[in-house]
Give the backbone structure.
Amino acid sequence: MITTRFAPSPTGYLHIGGLRTALFSWLWARKNGGKFLLRIEDTDMARNSEEATKAIIEAFDWVGMEYDGEVFYQSKRFDIYKEYIDRLLSEGKAYKCYMSKEELDALREEQMARKERPRYDGRYRDFTGTPPAGIEPVIRIKAPIGGMITFVDGIKGEINIASSEVDDFIIARSDGTPTYNFVVAIDDALMGVTEVMRGDDHLYNTPKQIVVYNALGFELPRFSHLAMINNEQGKKLSKRDGATDVMEYKTAGFLPEALLNFLLRLGWSHGDQEIFSIDEMKSLFEPSHISKSSSCYDLNKLLWLNSHYIKETPNEKLVEMLKDFGVDLSKDSRSNNILHATKERGKTLVELASQINLIIQQPTEYNEKDMKKAIKEDTVDILKDFSKLLAESRATLLTPLDYHHALESFVSQKEIGFGRIGQPLRVALLGSMSGAGLDEIMNILGVDESVARIDKLISII
RNA sequence: GACCCUUUCAUCUAGUGGCCAAGGAUGUUGCGUUUUCAACGCAGACACAGAGGUUCAAAUCCUCUAAGGGUCGCCA
């Protein structure tokens, strides 16, 4: 049985990189019919926030990644950790360290000066004397002194780190609360996690956690470290790069499928395939095709995917989603026609909404350049004649094709080029010279509204 | 500074010694289609970081160099 987990710390919103890690873990569990757990790493009481936890769960809901069972909170599991700390203490595998923070800092500086990798020197490892007064000790675990700590990373292959690089790290703070590297190992082992997938930035935590696994006699899971996602300049993604919060994508009008598909292809591949439905992801995902190198965030590709998924989405669903973007077509009998005319011209729901608004709302302003280009001396006359024609043939104008014919016969009767009517008409209907097909637009608007818009333009020429 | 990781078009990537004078996708350029814009279709430009090996044969294996990234907390 495969069990994976996503274990964020609740210090802020869910980051796009975190979502990718979660996605990979989720897919791997689903592909194998295993379990995907969500565990909140909130051992540092000073830093947690409940809102952050909520935000993370909200983001999971939005993208549709469901976790198995209840959410685990490490802050509710302190009793368990305490037991293991006591056990290690009594077995002599951990010890109390009375070094003060000042002493620690001094040691680090010294080591840096000597160009060494700073680490605890083990001075209380075998201490038997009387402890200094007035100091609440921390508890440190005994890491191996010589040799190598080796593990096979699921993505990078064999990793060797000298034991001398791993110091006797703290497993419990002086206030008694346990620390990250200790509780992660315990929880992953206790929860039966078989595949630990996490960011590259955790690579150096792995040997530490292996120390814990070994001290407690737990079986090791497979560790897989995902390379980071960089910004478009190739630097680490930061808040300055704009949308790093998953929920910002919702507000920006992205579809969850598009975001997941984008993230999936960022660092993972299945031959030449670019488009993956959620079901395909679940059946095709395979960690051996995760790439070792870090990748850059590419907004263009996300936009392309998003427009693809907008086109794929059934109208009824789009109508629902558009409500969040200020457009309610649910009671509009023209909704299918409107979406047909606009669906292909929005890369995001925000853009789609504004395209729709262009049609359903009378123009309040007209693009100046287009006005100049479209309006000639005889434009008013042409528009007047055309609006007359519309009014007269009202009874026969029932489909876009009817409007199309009306336009055609108007042009041939008047012996003018199509642009003479087409361009100003477009400005009249939409306020600018780009947008959906004229016949489609007029069909949606109907004769009265079309005429009204033409009259409105005439009045300001 | 020490330790670890990475390196194919601008970007995401295919590629596991001969199928590669390197394939797909995004973006970009041109053309077509269209009443405009978009969408769509077709075509073009663009890459194996560098240097040495190993081999009949290297993008693929080895060594070094360079460039990026990560980690060095009583944070996670």
Remarks:
- The CA atoms of residues 249 and 429 of chain A lie 32 Å apart.
- The longest helix of chain A spans residues 438-460.
- The first strand of chain A starts at residue 3 and ends at 6.
- The mean pLDDT of chain A is 94.
